[in-house]
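Example record for the data management plan.
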Amino acid sequence: MGLVRLLRDAALQPLGTTYLLLVLAFFVTGGKPYYAAGLVPLLLAAGAQPFLDRARRPWVAPALLAVSAPVALVVLPVLPVRSAGPVVALNYDAGETVGWPELVTQVAAAHRLLPPGTAVLTGNYGQAGAVDRYGAELGLPRAFSGHNGYGLWGSPPGTAPVLAIGVPDEVLQRACRELRHVGELTRTVRR
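Corresponding structural encoding:
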């Protein structure tokens, strides 16, 4: 309703058009659905304003809030992990943060088995973020990843041994002279 209102009102039309162009640009370039989320409050406000203008009854605003409350379950981390399955199905990125401390503990255990100076390379920025957030206290170096923006922060030194996490085998076989399997990550999330 908010988008329709923005597109129909000549004074507000540039805002609606901006939202549509952003969504289209992110869709075409493979962006995440939340990239255009900064404009969602605008759409919500534009959609709600006619209701608030027409109905000056005290129950309207609380009723609109109550009707929209279930959205919090999808966009905020309010559910316990054991109940988050449907939310993760709708919002994959929410699931990427589940179990970070356990993941990094496993990475640190494998890293201790390797020579000093071993770099940590991850297959995605979520794993790299976990290592960077929790790894220092476990003796891990900062993580490297070629995924999205993490690739801009450099790559591991060319001669250093690398502990690879979540990197496809085909990529490792092309990039490395020697490969050694040191373990598999397991999903051990406390519930």
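Summary line stored alongside the record: The CA atoms of residues 116 and 161 lie 9 Å apart.
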